[in-house]
Design goal:
Blueprint (H helix, E strand, L loop, with lengths): L1 E5 L11 H8 L3 E4 L3 E5 L2 H8 L7 E4 L2 H10 L3 H15 L4 E3 L2 H9 L4 E2 L6 H9 L9 E6 L5 H8 L4 E11 L3 H12 L4 E4 L2 H15 L7 E4 L2 H6 L1
Parallel strand pairs: 1-2, 1-9, 4-5, 4-7, 5-6, 7-8, 9-10
Antiparallel strand pairs: 3-8
Helix pairs in contact: 2-3, 6-7, 8-9
């Protein structure tokens, strides 16, 4: 049985993609098609803010890409040294809020301790943060994408909890997306299931999938990772 996963493959250095591996155990023939491309921006501004932990009450991460932006910053030797010598320790005295396990593991990779990873979505993370922060606190630094949803900022603003957002990446459609989808459907046929991993994936793929599937679209089972993607579907 064929399953189409609309996501980037896991980094090859960290082993086989866990979705491919797990589905393979149950004899599903899974295929990955990358949907999104990311461009990192404002990295100098990001590191400038990270260089002044005393100005902030903590950090918020709702996307693995925001952590990847920090990793790009830390590739420069001088910045890596500054992070290792003092900045990491100073940020570790403050809360680092994350929305899920994937983001939490990346936070740990840069030497910080995450909390809130069981929240699962921005709404629940916002509630978690509000239960721990006061309106008199210093602003929480929120590196995010250009397409971020306004749920978390809105909830914190309503509760009077200061937040400072900085856009560190932009999301665009993968250059070869339509070509990859057309190739898959012509070679593999109609999959039994298609899994979306982001609202952007729904936006960029669904119409093309409808054209490629034709009358067979009602035979496909669609799945979403998380409530935000489900809502977009």
């Amino acid at each position: 049985m064929k399953v189409l996963l609309l996501k980037d493959p896991k980094d090859k250095e960290s082993g086989p993609d866990p979705y491919i591996q797990e589905l393979g155990l149950y004899r599903f023939e899974a295929t990955l098609i990358p949907v999104l491309s990311f461009e990192f921006i404002s990295l100098e501004s990001l590191f400038e803010k990270l260089s002044h932990p005393e100005c902030y009450g903590g950090l918020i991460f709702t996307s693995p890409r925001a952590l990847e932006a920090i990793k790009v910053c830390l590739k420069e030797k001088s910045k890596t040294e500054a992070w290792s010598k003092s900045l990491k320790q100073k940020w570790n005295t403050k809360p680092v809020y994350v929305v899920g396990k994937a983001t939490a593991s990346l936070v740990e990779e840069i030497g910080l301790t995450p909390q809130g990873e069981k929240s699962g979505n921005a709404e629940k993370l916002a509630e978690y943060i509000c239960s721990r922060e006061k309106s008199s606190s210093s602003a929480l630094l929120f590196p995010c994408g250009a397409l971020k949803r306004e749920v978390l900022p809105t909830v914190l603003r309503e509760k009077g909890i200061p937040l400072e957002s900085i856009t560190v990446y932009q999301t665009t459609q993968h250059a070869h997306l339509q070509e990859s989808l057309s190739s898959y459907f012509s070679q593999q046929g109609i999959p039994a299931s298609i899994v979306f991993f982001s609202p952007s994936g729904v936006k960029f793929c669904l119409q093309h999938i409808q054209k490629l599937s034709g009358d067979f679209i009602n035979h496909i089972k669609f799945a979403a990772i998380g409530p935000t993607t489900a809502e977009a579907m």
